[in-house]
Automatic annotation (TrEMBL):
Enzyme Commission number, as recorded: 3.2.1.52
Gene: nagA
GO cellular component, one term: membrane
Taxonomic source organism: Cellulomonas sp. GM13
SUPFAM superfamilies: (Trans)glycosidases, beta-N-acetylhexosaminidase-like domain
Protein name (Swiss-Prot/TrEMBL): beta-N-acetylhexosaminidase
Length: 494
């Protein structure tokens, strides 16, 4: 039997001593007649139709499916189990039929993506090896954060990245929408934010903005690809020069700041006690919450270098209050752990150079930790010293560095149960094109995805190294740029 190269590695996989499933002229996708399942069926038919070069029909479940069918079945909801249990899925591939079963649309999509990874194409013939797979994620939050403020990446770019995320079973797209250099999200109640501060970027390159309508289109792709969530970040009280340029009343002098196109941080901030501050936060976060389908809104909170701790704590409390009043849960970068937090607040860990004691204390008081260590999961770090893209402040991250780490033991003394997930991040100070972005993501995004999905006892670098080698051909098929790490033998082919 040929080796199986699934990423993330599933919990249970049995190769069956049977002939493979072959997608034939009469193959169909069978679903129950529910809107959300029809959408998943259309996604499946389109995916395998493009792969085979022929149209595949979607049919409703009823009579016995015809031979050669791919059958998607939604099972009863999970009433117990750990985080992400509703994303459990089962795949059974036999010569005459493929069955994908899950209690959720997300789980069905995971099963379909698994089939795509298993599929091989030979002269137009699509084959899937006979297997039985039972799988579920380790963490419910498996994310990717993309900075669209320093350099802009629009809806079409995001659609491509969403496809990659779905392929590796990542389920939260976190958009860093505002920073010193630009404000990229149209906020109806504060139109000058994009009228005056969207046409700037790091390096002085004019860029654009994201409207709610465009994000809704991308979200439809996101739901079709992975039925998952957004986390939109409005970074306050620091990283706000773009806001100060648009609304001078947010500065003590009442005068707007100049446009900034450098890469320095920590020099701008909002002021908790200015009369304009609270109305600004209420307007912005209320609008952002209204256009966010997920449960969380990210308030930033990082790298505020010119604010006294007491004012910073009051500001974080105010921002959190506004977000909760808008019906969303609060996420913030690790610095917010230095302030009193409501239980359930998500603290995103990023800077491994600092004393972790505040994060341990926050976790013990009810905060939840999202692990994005810069030395492991910041995918804008250089691969090596000679690599032309990226930064090095957190070190250099080769593929093995992105793979060989354990989220629950990274911080000594942190309660393991407080860790709710893993999120890779890519910052765009040096990234100007989609090719730049995907080169930094691949192959490291696949490594972080396996850390987020697969239990540590089932992960092994040597095994992963062999599996990821077989994904290079898929990236070539997509036409995306990627890095041929010397740690992997890319000559391996399916």
């Amino acid at each position: 039997m040929s080796p199986i190269a699934l990423i993330p590695r599933p919990q249970h996989l049995d190769q069956l001593d049977e002939p493979p499933f072959v997608l034939g002229e009469t193959s169909t996708v069978v679903v129950e007649p529910r809107p959300e399942l029809i959408q998943t069926g259309v996604l499946t038919a389109d995916l395998f139709g493009r792969l085979s070069g022929r149209a595949i029909e979607v049919r409703y479940a009823g009579a016995e499916p015809a031979p050669g069918s791919i059958v998607l079945t939604r099972t009863a909801p999970v009433t117990d189990g750990g985080p992400g249990a509703d994303e459990t899925y089962q795949v059974v591939v036999r010569a005459g039929r493929v069955e994908v079963r899950s209690p959720s649309v997300a789980g069905l999509v995971h099963g379909v993506v698994t089939l795509r990874q298993l599929a091989t194409v030979d002269e137009g013939s699509v084959r899937i090896p006979a297997v039985r797979i039972q799988d579920a994620p380790r963490f419910a939050w498996r994310g990717l954060s993309i900075d669209v403020a320093r350099h802009f990446f629009g809806v079409e770019d995001l659609k491509g990245v969403i496809g990659l995320m779905a392929h590796y079973k990542l389920n939260v797209l976190h958009l860093h929408l505002t920073d010193e250099q630009g404000w990229r999200l149209h906020v109806p109640s504060r139109p000058k934010l994009t009228e005056l501060s969207s046409d700037s970027a790091g390096g002085g390159r004019p860029r654009r903005l994201l409207h709610a309508g465009g994000l809704r289109r991308a979200h439809r792709v996101r739901r079709g690809a992975a039925a998952s969530a957004w986390s939109r970040e409005i970074d306050v009280p620091g990283h706000v020069n773009a806001a100060l340029h648009a609304y001078g009343e947010l500065t003590p002098s009442g005068e707007p700041t100049d446009v900034y196109d450098g890469i320095e941080v920590g020099f701008s901030r909002l002021h908790a006690d200015l009369p304009a501050t609270r109305p600004f936060l209420e307007a912005v976060f209320t609008d952002v919450a209204a256009m966010t389908a997920g449960e969380h809104v990210h308030i930033g909170g990082d790298e505020v270098l010119t604010m006294e701790p007491e004012e910073y704590a009051r500001f974080v409390a105010l921002a959190a209050q506004v977000v909760r009043a808008a019906g969303k849960e609060v996420v913030g970068w690790q610095e917010i752990a230095h302030t009193p937090l409501e239980p359930g607040t998500v603290v995103q860990y990023w800077d491994t150079r600092v004393d972790p004691e505040p994060f341990v204390r926050a976790a013990r008081e009810g905060a939840r930790l999202l692990m994005s260590p810069g030395s492991k999961a910041y995918l804008d770090m250089k691969y090596d010293a000679s690599f032309p893209l990226g930064l090095e402040w957190a070190g250099r991250i080769e593929v093995r560095d992105a793979y060989d780490w354990e989220p629950t033991t990274l911080i000594e003394g942190l309660p393991a149960e407080s860790v709710i997930g893993v999120e890779a991040a890519v910052w765009t100070e040096t990234l100007r094109t989609l090719d730049d972005l995907t080169t930094m993501l691949l192959p490291r995004l696949a490594a972080v995805a396996e850390v987020a999905w697969t239990p540590p006892e089932a992960r092994d670098w040597a095994d992963f190294r062999g599996r990821v080698a077989r994904h290079g051909q898929f990236w070539d098929h997509l036409g995306v740029a990627w890095y041929r790490s010397p740690q992997v033998d890319w000559s391996t082919r399916p």
